[in-house]
Amino acid sequence: MVSPTIAKHIPRLELATTCITHSMTVQEQDLDLICRMASGDENAMREIYATYGQRLFAYALRLTNDHAMAEDVTQETLVIAWHTAGKFRGDGRLIAWLLGIVHHTAMKMMRHTAEPLESIEETVTGGKASPEEQAQVEEMKRWVRKGLQDLSAEHRAVLELVFYQGLTLNEVADICQCPLGTVKSRLNYARAHLRGVLSRTEEVWR
Amino acid sequence: MNHEEQLILYTANQLDQAEHLSFEKHLADCTECQVDLQLWKAVAGEIIASDSAERPPAKLAERALEQIHRPAASTLVFRHVFQLLRSQVFLVQREMWPATASVMALGVIVAFVSRHAEFIYFIAPLIAATSLCVLFGPEHDPAHELALSTATSSWKLLLARLSIVSAYNLILVLAALSILMIIFPPALLGTLALGILAPMMFLSMLALLLSIWIGTSNAIVVAYILWAFQFIAYQSIGAWIGSPAITSFLIAYRNFWHSPMLLLILSLPLLLIALWSANRPLFRLSM
Q: Which residues, 6 or more positions from B142, have their beta carbon under 8 angstroms from its beta carbon?
């Protein structure tokens, strides 16, 4: 824990005085991590990456559809988080703040590369003998995957944030920098799109 | 919150206990929500399965820390420019350095002996033009083809060499004028220095462009003629022919070389065209 007298002399340590280091909840641990990072503790950066790196990278990958770019986005997110850690006020969840940086960085990077988003080519394994039911489930999964890939990055992002990152719709709106109504309309669009894809699947299997 | 939104939050396990129970009651009676639930479960399952399978690079935090500790972009640009200039110093034709300095030294001696500081004004643009004519192209650079195959574009190489040689020429002129201060009044040399730089720049840019287009020797000849014409023409031929049209043209031509602003403004497009031509082999007729 950083003493208030030291914190007073370090401008980046705005949050240090509120840090709690023992018997912590997740939110307190997050606040502690960000405080340490704001004070220049490199291990805090490593811990943040160990805790949230997978989720940040997965989200970056879904947005960019490009492994190398997702790595760049994640790395840039950590760098931005390092430089702006002192601005994190602790009124939201750390993961939501970090995902917001991922979202912004990915969108900026994609605008710069100006390449259209392309679906990742999925290799569907075939020729393996399996029961018909199992095959049907696999086929449905494949169609869902296909349906998800056909969605734009913005629509896919909303689904990722809700279902994988476990964020509330308000947090999603903050991250995507759009009104709550837009988040809801994106979810509705995704639902209609996926429904269409799945109804076609059912027709195929009938 | 309508049922569609509740269903999404229900699938994502984000409803509180009361909302959860109440929605389950609704779900039991609503066929449409049941169908949608299957859809969202399949979607959530797929997203969770595919996202959790992604493994982030192990050393990304270390790479981010390296990036944080790396010098700022401006420092990197400065370092890159310095490296480029340093590498090009050795690729400028070696004979150019002593030759230019010797001619300038000779000019200083002639100016001393003849007591005419203006002589420096006459030779400085010629020296600058000649030195820039030998900057680029296979005639002067044995490593020319190799340089073209590197990642650095031709125009950057040319600009780097141009900067080095121009800086060298400028130093020579200033050194020559400083030496001449021993016998000439500083005010005269000050005026001379201001008068020299613009024609020196214009003539050297013109010579550089011509050397890329029509080859070194042709460029030197054209540049020398254009420069010398203002002295020869006005003093002898102009007076001799006596035609008012020719005389006024010669006066205008001489005035052109004494208009520093115009010369500096015209130097810029010449420089840009030269750099542009360096990048395009088709425009390099000299090759």
A: none
Tens of pLDDT, residue by residue over B15-37, are 888 888 888 889 888 888 888 88
DSSP B142: T
Residues of B in contact with A140 (CB under 8 A): 42
**Nearest CA to CA, how far is A100 from chain B (Å)?**
18
Q: Tell me the C-alpha distance between B126 and B203, whole Å.
A: 8
CB atoms under 10 Å from CB of B235, counted, come to: 12
Give the integer Cα–Cα distance in Å for B170 and B128.
9
Per-residue model confidence as pLDDT tens digits over B128-187:
888 888 877 666 666 666 666 666 677 888 888 888 999 999 999 989 988 888 888 877
Q: Would you say A79 and A104 are in contact if contact means Cβ atoms under 8 Å apart?
A: no
Rounded Cα distance between B161 and A73, Å, is 38
Q: What is the pLDDT of residue A9?
A: 42
Residues comprising chain B, all counted: 287
Find the chain B residues whose C-beta atoms sit closer than 8 A to any C-beta of A.
Answer: 4-5, 8-9, 11-14, 36, 39-40, 42-48, 50-52, 54-57, 60-65, 67-68
At A41, give phi and psi (nearest 5°): -80, 110
What ipTM describes this predicted complex? 0.71
Contact list, B45 vs chain A (CB under 8 Å): 141
Higher pLDDT, A93 or B234: A93
Q: Do A74 and B60 touch (CB under 8 A)?
A: yes
The C-alpha angle with vertex B54 and arms to B53 and B57, in degrees rounded to 5, equals 140
Sign of the CA dihedral running B255, B118, B169, B286 = positive
pLDDT digits (tens, 9 = 90+) for A34-69: 899 888 899 999 999 999 999 999 999 988 888 999
- Extract the residue ranges of chain A whose pLDDT is less than 50: 1-22, 115-129, 205-206
Mean pLDDT, residues B221-245 taken together: 73
Structure tokens at A155: 């629509």
pTM (two decimals): 0.53
The size of chain A, in residues, is 206
Is the predicted pLDDT of residue B202 greater than 90, yes or no? yes
* 8 Å CB contact of B43 and A163: yes
Residue type, B235: Q
Q: What does DSSP assign to residue B140?
A: T
Cα-Cα end-to-end distance for chain B: 75
Q: Give the Å distances, CA to CA, from B169 to A5, B86, B201, B224, B228.
A: 60, 17, 10, 17, 19
Helix extents (H) in A39-161:
42-64, 67-84, 94-113, 132-150, 153-159
Query: Which of B46, B63, B65 comes nearest A145 by C-beta?
Result: B46
